[in-house]
Amino acid sequence: MRAVVYDQFSTEPTVREVPDPQPSDAGVVVRVETTGLCRSDAHGWLGHDDGIALPQVPGHELVGRVHAVGPLVERFQVGDRVTVPFVCACGRCAECLAGNGQVCPNQTQPGFTHWGSYAELVALHDADVNLIPVPESLDAGAAALLGCRFATAFRGLVHRAALRSGERLLVVGCGGVGLSAAMIGVALGAEVVAVDIDAAALARARSIGVTHTIDSSGLDEAAVLARIAEVSPGGVQVSVEALGRESTMRLSLLALAPLGRQVQIGLFSSEPTLPMPRIIAQELSLHGSHGMPASDYRELLDLVASGALRPQDLIEHRIGLDEAPSALVALAAGDRSTGVTVIDVA
Fold first, then answer.
1. Which of 53, 88, 181, 313 has its CA 20 to 30 A from that of 304?
2. Which of 288, 305, 324 is the last residue before a domain boundary?
3. Are residues 144 and 185 in the same domain?
4. What is each CA distance from 67 to 18, 24, 61, 113, 249, in whole angstroms?
5. Peptide bond preceding 85: is omega within 30 degrees of 0, i.e. cis?
6. 192 and 159 within one domain
7. How far apart are CA 108 and CA 106, in angstroms?
8. What is the pTM of this model?
9. How is 227-249 classified by DSSP, letter by letter?
10. How far is CA 57 from the centre of its chain?
11. What's the total number of domains in the chain?
């Protein structure tokens, strides 16, 4: 098969022929239709994840059709159109049995623990636990994006922070994850405030229904908080930090109303310092979100099927596999595209 491969961290990947994967006994091989270009892939390529073995094929957001099936798989067959959470659970441990496969201690992740979806074929383990049927009518790009950024944002807002209709939601950072969170907030009836330094990203946020946008370029923390207070005196009920920077994490925490809930999705390259006195005095809560188990996807898929949530509206670029290496390098270098890039493989 053809795949994007990197042999060393931070050296440009290449597209080349590699052996086809084989399904594990309880796994499948999927022929990839479309896969997302995600900032997590860039973190992996930069060497920020110590679990990656080289050489590696990146990619963890995907949709495709089952190509080969292991002998223990019962629920899926060749030809089924599927997606998968980026965290694939074992289905047997205490966390999985409690319905929390997204924190499974035995988890596998395509593109990190084994070769991923920037390829014509990808192996996925424990298929009966992790595969999610995808309707034929759903756009391939939209389906791929459900595997990581939309699932992570949805779980963070709905299952962790319990965002309610009518509440104010602050989204700090309007990249792919931030815009996904903003779109979900709008679909759930929240009043969304988005902060970014890029005017085009804020325009994209307005195009998906965000009520208030704040251009924070050139503003210090106090000035940005003052702008947020103009929109939401007393603070916001829920915030999402989607960049992984200490300054924006502080901002999203300090903008919360008493008893406010922050969802932390952005990944940090070093350990941040928290404004702990404020967190204690205002009884703020900080919620991590690490994807969503396959068993919880029905609610998200129903929202997409209703038309209230349209992940495809965030897609800015559709590229081929040969363009993926340079796109990954550009993303790692800080590319500020105002939408999402997907790689059409098939």
1. 88
2. 288
3. no
4. 17, 13, 17, 21, 42
5. no
6. yes
7. 7
8. 0.93
9. HHHHHSTT-EEEEEE-S--HHHH
10. 18
11. 2
Q: Are residues 137 and 198 in the same domain?
A: no
Range of the domain at 222: 152-288
Of 211, 182, 200, give the one whose Cα is nearest residue 309.
182
CA distances (Å), origin 177, targets 77, 172, 207: 32, 10, 16
pLDDT value at 336 more than 80: no
Q: How many other C-beta atoms lie within 10 A of the C-beta of residue 112? A: 23
Residue in the block written with tokens 């690490």? 290
Longest dimension (CA), the chain: 60
Confidence of residue 2 (pLDDT cuts 50, 70, 90): very high
Element (H, E) at 253: helix 246-254
Distance CA 74, CA 83 (A): 17
Confidence of residue 50 (pLDDT cuts 50, 70, 90): confident
Q: 85: closest CA among 134, 19, 22, 13? A: 134
Question: Strand 62-69 and strand 28-37: pairing?
Answer: antiparallel
